Amino acid sequence: MMYQVFDNTTFCVKTFGCQMNKHDSERIAGMLESFGALPVDTIEDADMVIFMTCCVREAADTRLYGQVASLKNIPLRSGSPFKKRLVAVGGCIGQRDGEKLTQALPHLDVVFGTHNLASLPSLLNSAIEKGGYQVEVLDASTSFPTELPTDREHPWAAWLPITIGCNNFCSYCIVPYVRGREKSRTLEDIVAEAQRYVDAGVKEITLLGQNVNSYGRDLYGSPRFVDVLDAVDATGVERLRFATSHPKDLTDEVIERFGKLRSLMPALHLPVQSGSNRILEKMNRKYTREHYRELVAKLRNVCPDIALSTDIIVGFPGETESDFEDTYSLIDEIGYHQVFTFIYSKREGTPAALIPDTTPHDVIQARFDRLVDLVQARAYELNQLDANTDVEILVEGSSKRDSKLLSGKTPKNQTVHAPIPTGSTIEELSGTLLRVHIEEAKTWYLSGCVL
Ligand code: SAH
Ligand code: SF4
Ligand code: F3S
Asked: DSSP letter string over 263-320?
């Protein structure tokens, strides 16, 4: 189907939330471009604005309302074929709230959910031709979104979803309600897409799923994530990563791949959420602190240099000082290169929202602040181990702080800054692998010079 209405139009996608959303945004951009619309960076230049929203925590939720409301102060560009700017809301808030959004935000033109990205062009087309708002939110996917064209952010890196949805129902989490049940793509499909990327010059592939470790359970009866790792490695990709990995399903076979597979980078995001067994049980995480420590010991046994990262929720309902101490001591003991710390945010409709809690906010905030100090101190210490070493980085572009510096990632996923060598441009270096001598290690980055 072609839509003439997109000729000479421009669009801008604003993305919030996780890599699933970022990936969906790349699909949307790919689709609209295939219909003749041109991507632009700013709302000022855009005839159509698409918000890909997140509701995992309240802060992400409220930001959308502010952003959509402020749009009406930005005039439509001169030369636009439209009389007014079209505004579409998709992603997880679109899925959760559906038509209700058009009441809260009356100048919305389109609302769509997480299961029907492919309908966006036709919904926009109807909004243009008929006027009024268009809403389509489905309960489950009919097709995998990866069957749509993609406009990737970087030509050398690709996110490759292997599952969508989640079956885990952690008691605090809204994701299973807005992304649906876990659904795996076939192994053949994944490998074919990976091979296409590698043949097109992609250096790094990141396999995506809410819990990649359970990949294949719905299709093959048992998880087959390790087969995905082996097969994608065999495509010849330089760097392979994956996210996210649930500790309850991380198998010995997958752990062993860290010591063995050529392309698998020595970095793993393994969200623990809490160090207290009492809280882990209330979170419905289905593992204990002891099990988690054992996983880390096994990982370090096969890959001593592995860099670990994790997610922590502080202030889950009923968290006591002693529960928090258990989290604090676990974070201190394990030693993470990166910890994403979140204050618990109540999500209506999840089981945890029903647990009463009287802990004052300033107590939770104080725990959070203490934890952040620890996280920074440990990250700084761990990065010192790489000072005065040579590492290979994948160059991602120039540094945001200083355009004379290039920025890249080490195998352990640390950010590296180094001066752009004279005679080279950032355009030709981006997407290449370079060796760098690390001179200084800071908390969140390393700096050095290209060898
Ligand atoms: N599937 C991934 C995470 C998805 S959400 C996993 O299981 O690891 C990303 C992170 O957001 C979670 O790991 C959790 O730490 C945090 N999060 C999810 N729901 C939250 C809530 N209600 N309040 C605070 N943090 C939350
Ligand atoms: Fe949410 Fe848990 Fe699923 Fe992760 S595994 S998306 S935290 S329910
Ligand atoms: Fe947010 Fe949806 Fe991802 S709620 S974290 S964008 S799955």
From this structure: TB-SEEE---B-S-HHHHHHTT----HHHHHHHHHHHHHH-TT-EEEEEEEE--TT--
The full DSSP string for 73-92 is GSPPPTT-SSSS-EEEEEHH
The bound ligand whose nearest atom lies closest to the alpha carbon of 55 is 3
pLDDT digit string, tens, across residues 194-239: 999 999 999 999 999 999 999 999 999 988 999 999 999 999 999 9
Which pLDDT belongs to residue 424? 94
Crossing angle between the packed helical segments 187-199 and 225-233, to the nearest 10 degrees: 30
Q: Is the pLDDT of residue 145 over 80?
A: no
In this predicted structure, what is the pLDDT of residue 147? 66
Q: Quick one: which H or E segment has residue 175? A: helix 175-179
The whole-angstrom separation of Cα 407 and Cα 431 is 11
| Cβ < 6 A, ligand 1 pocket | 56-57, 172-173, 175, 210-211, 244, 246, 271, 273, 311, 313, 342, 344-345, 347
Q: Taking the chain, what is the end-to-end CA distance rounded to the nearest angstrom?
A: 52
Distance CA 174, CA 114 (A): 13
pTM: 0.94
